[in-house]
Amino acid sequence: MKTLEKLTDEELAMRYVDGNNRAFDVLLNRTQQKIFSYILFIVHDQDKADDIFQETFLKVIYRLQQGMYATTGKFSAWVMRIAHNVIMDSF
User: Fold this and answer.
1) Average pLDDT, the chain
2) 19, 65 in Cβ contact below 8 A?
3) Is the pLDDT of residue 73 over 80?
4) How far is the C-alpha of 67 from the C-alpha of 50, rounded, in Å?
5) To pair with 24 at 20 to 30 A between CA atoms, which of 32, 45, 74, 75?
6) For residues 9 and 76, is the Cβ–Cβ distance under 8 A?
7) In degrees, to the nearest 5, what angle opens at C-alpha 8 toward C-alphas 14 and 80?
8) Cβ pair 13, 79 in contact under 8 A
9) Once rounded to an integer, what is the mean pLDDT over residues 59-68?
10) What does DSSP assign to residue 7?
């Protein structure tokens, strides 16, 4: 069995859906800098970026738990799309 760090993002997402909370921690660690940087680049405000980042990952968690993620796409692109939508909603 592969260690979590060696799994793809998509595999980690499915492990989280199956109840492995540690898999989500690994996913978050892998993607948080990229997602936060994107949000901050768009909104130019640290506090607003923090709020949008938190809302983004709440939506990611909710959608994963509701089975709304299909492994046919790239996980990071899926999260980035959610972040983009949260940014647009904030404006």
Assistant:
1) 93
2) no
3) no
4) 26
5) 45
6) yes
7) 80
8) no
9) 94
10) S
* Strand, coil or helix: 66: coil
CA distance 57 to 13: 13
Question: CA 40 to CA 72: how far, in whole Å?
Answer: 28
Are 79 and 59 in contact, with CB atoms under 8 Å apart?
A: no
Long-range CB pairs of 29-32 (<8 Å, 24+ gap) are: 31/75, 31/76, 31/79
- Distance, CA of 21 to chain centre: 14
Residue among 73, 68, 38, 66 nearest 52 (CA): 38
Helices (H) and strands (E) in the chain, counts: 4, 0
Q: Dihedral (C-alpha) 14, 17, 18, 20: value to the nearest 10 degrees?
A: 90
pTM check: above 0.85: yes
